[in-house]
Specification:
VC0802-like; Carbamate kinase; alpha/beta
Amino acid sequence: MAKIAMKFGGTSVADLDRIRHVAALVKRERDRGHEVAVVVSAMAGETNKLVGWANEIAKSPGSNFPAMPDQREQDVVVAAGEQVTAGLLAVALGALGVPARSWLGWQIPIRTSGVHGHARIEGIDPEQMNESLARGEVAVVAGFQGVSPDERISTLGRGGSDTSAVAVAAGLKADRCDIYTDVDGVYTTDPRIVPKARRLEKIAYEEMLEMASLGAKVLQTRSVEIAMLHRVPTRVLSTFDPDAGGTLLCDEEDIVEKKPVTGIAYSRDEAKITLHKIPDHPGIAAAIFGPLADSGVNVDMIVQNVSEDGKKTDLTFTVSRSELARALASIEKAAPQIAYRELTHDANVAKVSIIGIGMRAHPGVAQTMFRTLSEKGINIQVISTSEIKVSVLIAEEYVELAVRALHSAYELDVA
Ligand code: ADP
Ligand code: ASP
Ligand code: MG
């Protein structure tokens, strides 16, 4: 008998029939003699709807301007989606004769940081859940939510139910964590834009971490971090074809064939900011990035041009598109200290990345990327690299073309 955590995403619980189907998959594991904790997302589209409601009602009467709702109250609203599915799945299991009970984040409790909307899980108290499992109940956990240090409901950022699932698996010391979704595993790239994408039998934690943080939304980045840290054997499987192969997250040593590139990720959530003619002397980078950090903006890629006259230079960097307005406001506020001549921005950009642990051993991997993009006439605006990835910023309109071309160039296409 094993202890397993299962997670079902939004499309997997999109309506009552699908919730019944999920209940049957849970029952199947229980009939095999396993103790089961199931983590569920909100029904597809629910979280977007709830976020929209909170934003809408935050506007002052008569105003058309977007307004930010109180983040703590927004969390109360958006966490409700998962509460509904947890209750419905517990009822559906009951209807199949399987004893089950629902658990909200605060009931377990799943303790998080106080950063509402992007809280990090800090700890899970597994005691009560373990007692419930020992009584033979299936634990149905509402994903995406926890409780903050001031005892308020918190949420974990979009896609956060993956993280809830892996954290619950780690907290319960489960034998494995199965993430059921609408694709049958992790692919070489998003199968929705590249029909020739191939399913990976296995992927190293480090690679999955890069894939997720560079835009492959199949797993939330933080879930991979927790899986890696606690060595939780985690699989990605299809809800609609549960016996198809799936993908196992594993240690690097367990991957025999290390191709130079394992996968390609892309992100449209990017914006580029350029400061023209800033003074080329010590302290300027600090004057720019200090205020950005203070206003909670994450800066990703950075490139500084060579100064032509030794006095003035240009600096370009990228931020998440949703943080563009905040970033521009913080730069404009610091304008006297930075002393730039002009500030420009472009939100029609996207980042495309190649990822692979094999890159360490294969020279010339980046060159293939640059050549492939140039053959397609795609201009590279910014480049950044690490040991196992190369990212480029390009015009958003070329994302799909770029991903498909790179997928073929690195011989990842299915035969
Ligand atoms: P869920 O609601 O189950 O959490 P998500 O929509 O968050 O599902 O994640 C699954 C989606 O991730 C897939 O439908 C697919 O379009 C997308 N995706 C992006 N990159 C990849 C990849 N490399 N492999 C598999 N799926 C990917
Ligand atoms: N329902 C949340 C979202 O849509 C969490 C999740 O599905 O993982 O982001
Ligand atoms: Mg998801």
